[in-house]
Specification:
Strand content: 35-45%
CATH superfamily: Electron Transport, Fmn-binding Protein, Chain A
Number of helices: 6
Order of helices and strands: EHEEEHEEHHHEEH
Shape: globular
Helix content: 10-25%
Distance between the termini: 20 Å
Number of strands: 8
Bound molecules: flavin-adenine dinucleotide
Structural class: alpha+beta
Length: 217
Amino acid sequence: MTDFPTTDRNQVRRMPTRASYDATTIYPIIDEALICHVGFVEDGQPFVIPTIHARMDNTIVLHGAKASRLLKHAATGAPLCITCTLVDGLVLARSVFHHSMNYRSAVLFGRGRLASTTEEKWAALETITEHVMPGRWADARQPNEIEMNATSVILVDIEEATAKVRTGPPGDDEEDYALPIWAGVLPTPMIPQPPVDDPRLNEGIDVPGYVDAYWRK
Ligand SMILES: Cc1cc2nc3c(=O)[nH]c(=O)nc-3n(C[C@H](O)[C@H](O)[C@H](O)COP(=O)(O)OP(=O)(O)OC[C@H]3O[C@@H](n4cnc5c(N)ncnc54)[C@H](O)[C@@H]3O)c2cc1C
């Protein structure tokens, strides 16, 4: 895995010490994030749309209804900006000014294209399903022809990318460390809760092991 090029578009200017252009930092952020936000401009109006994504090598895959504006726009090859954000903790400083969050975020630039073959679409849908819940694709009923025809899949090759990562305690002004105010970090890991059966679940079907053991990382 190599570094992404640093350009005018993706070079971090604010807090550049928190930046990385390295796929070994960027890919795990994409993979851990459950969703992304896709930004695009249509007729001068910006839109930022949350959606499910997955990564296949250096390509982001998106899917949805054929009528989706986002997917129709992405299929034209227009420029897209995709972000993935993980909030790791709330950083509570002594001063309000220095409050922050610990995070790992990735900003990706690229252009979309419509998956053209059934094989490409099938592989993308499997990857998206496994991105959300590893083990589910083989367990669930897979898409039929009608469902496949109703679904668009967009592939976005990542041209440029940046990660920005904040870790560690708050950084207060030196004179504020003497203040009698609690300061520190409240970690906010994503911890799944016990699964809830579908009220229409047939008797005798247990929660699969991959659901019980679900962990985002
Ligand atoms: C959970 C969270 C909370 C944040 N809260 C704040 C806040 O309250 N106030 C605030 O000012 N900033 C906050 N940030 C940082 C924010 O995302 C920007 O990095 C920062 O505001 C600088 O913006 P800019 O447009 O000047 O970036 P620039 O440094 O000019 O951005 C240039 C390029 O750097 C890359 N880049 C910039 N930011 C990021 C990023 N976060 N992740 C990956 N690549 C990036 C992009 O490629 C971008 O095009 C937060 C970030 C996260 C993830």
